[in-house]
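Notebook, student rotation project (T.W.).
Task set for the rotation: take a protein with a known small-molecule partner, predict the structure of the complex, and write up what can be learned from the model alone. Partner molecule chosen: pyridoxal-5'-phosphate. Sequence and SMILES entered below by T.W., checked by me.
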Amino acid sequence: MSTPSTPIVCPDVVSLDEILPEEPLLMMGAGPVPIPAAVAKANAIVINHLGATMVKVIGQVKEMARYVFQTRSKWVLGVAGPGSAAMEMAISNLAWPGTRVLSIKNGFFSERMAEMARRTGAHVVTLDVADRSVARLEDVEAALRQERPDIVTIVQGETSNTVWNHQLKEIAALAKAAGALVVVDAVCTLSTMPLEMDAWGIDAVITGGQKGLSSIPGVSLIAFSDAAWERVKGRDHANAHWCLDASLAENFWHNAGYHYTAPVSGVLALHEALRLVCAETLEKRFARHLKCSLALQAGISALGLELYAPEPCRLNSVVGIEVPKGLSPADICGHISRQHQVEISGSFGLPIVRIGQMGEQCREHNLFRTLHAFGRTMVDLGVRVDLPAGVAALERSLAENGRGVAA
Ligand SMILES: Cc1ncc(COP(=O)(O)O)c(C=O)c1O
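Predicted structure of the complex:
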């Protein structure tokens, strides 16, 4: 037991070379995902966080982000922090004591938005949706009539249980008609599937860097509509979160001034990730994601395993697979990582494992390696699966759906 007078000695630690695996793991879980070489290269650079070079970089990041969010709104900002920091920026700037919030709750991440809203002192009501399903429009309408919220929160893709809120556009329209601002968590879906901020009437969209965009974790993006920005600027007391105060962040992201020292390397990485999205175009990126995810799903089903979310509301960006009886998610994730150097995810206590289909994960060579490693893992762990049938189904689906779609 050390006492205040015991010297604090220099710790005996090992280098990263001794900690990290010799061959990098293929990151096929629910994020972070593999990053392209241009992103990795940018992430190794440090420049002045203020000045002409950074102003140019920030200008292009905002311009490209507007394309990815599909918005003409000026109010795009970056956030130093995870997707949750962007989430908290949205919630904490728009909600305060007395604000009425309706949170459509599909799972772990939509509940996180509700919890953040509660912490602002807002009055929060959740519309609880059963696992593996989405909110019905009539239930949303009834909740809007009853609660008369100032803000509605919803997640486009609930990564935790792999459910896709495919009626987001209709729900946003209902919320708008009821006079509410709509906050959308697109952390796992942005650039993997259509989301049209302006056309769908969305007032705040948040995303992280480490999923669909295939950038590094730790630098995130947010866009506010004019109406949301008016509410941010109109509040009569400051946001308790100084770092996440959008009015202070405006100084850096719009006025070339200082807020805090920006994570320059991460912003450069994000710039390159966005540039690659723009070079590919959203249309082609969506097609690549769809093709790869459907092929993976076909491969898993042909192995003889069950997908967790029913088809109409199945998220393509992250595929959930039921864990066969007698195994735990940790058994599977541990084995595939150790034996095959492929990393996949469990999910917050649910009996599933998740394979991501975001950004660089959606490449044919990554799919074959992952499906093979997953099938082999099942065989090794004593589950009867048809591995050749799985790989054949993957190949067939890619060939059938793939004409003209690069992956
Ligand atoms: C839908 C969704 N929202 C929010 C988050 C939180 O993002 P982060 O872990 O970067 O804070 C995640 C992360 O997995 C997510 O999938």
